[in-house]
Amino acid sequence: MSDYKSKLNLAVLIFKKNISRLIAMSVFLTAIYLAFALLQQVAFEILNISVLDDLGEIILSKKAVIITALAGIVFLLIGMPLRLGAKKWCFEICFNKSADFTLIFEYFSDFKKYIKAIKFIIIFFIKRLFYYLILVLPFTVFRIIISYFAQNGLSTANEYYLASVVFLDILIILAAISAFYFSLKYFAAEYIFFKDENLTLREIGRKSADVMKERKGYIFKLNLLLLPFYALCIFIFPIIILIPYRNVLFSVIGKEFLKDI
Fold first, then answer.
1. SS3 call for 99
2. Which of 177, 185, 199, 233 is deepest in the core (most CB within 10 A)?
3. Whole-number mean pLDDT of the chain?
4. Alpha-carbon distance 102 to 86, whole Å?
5. Burial of 21 per CB tally in 10 Å (0-12, 13-18, 19+)
6. In whole angstroms, what is the distance from residue 71 CA to residue 82 CA?
């Protein structure tokens, strides 16, 4: 616990030293993300697309799916490289470097860098998603099947149905927690990428897996300690402070992990 406390305190010191720039960066990124959501909503209004019917049920129309997919692609191509640049900026700060704010836009400065950043984001998203697919998806599909049969014959008041749904919900939660734990195998990948962007994505993945072999539990416990802070992020204002602090904290830890690479 003392080790966690020392890391939390060090992150606080770094955060205080750079508080104005960190909050400015956080406000900027939050505004960008809200702009993406607003543009999607504007597109729905212009095309007269409704995602809810009169009873409040979700309508998955073809137009809504296409607009949402396009918004997701635009966010991937613009928002995610900005996020990666912001995390690199936090990482540089933790090395006591006077990182320039324009570092956030670094991956837009060179086409090769941009392409590699996009590849990095997609590949490691898929690597993490894999654990959720193999652990969470089967229980989720089984629950959907049970619900389908229940709505088409079996009474939802049946005690066996209710018990099975509750049991599956518990399994889904446990599977999601397990998937998160195993996906921490790639926690160090971003920091390895920031340190040496000449490495191949395969090398980054291998190095991250090696350095995290005995450290997944450490990061998992740290995230448990941060749960109250994550809960506050349902409100917009705390995000502006808590997310950059978390990025600084993880950068401090990532910097330490890199010593063993």
1. coil
2. 185
3. 85
4. 9
5. middle
6. 16
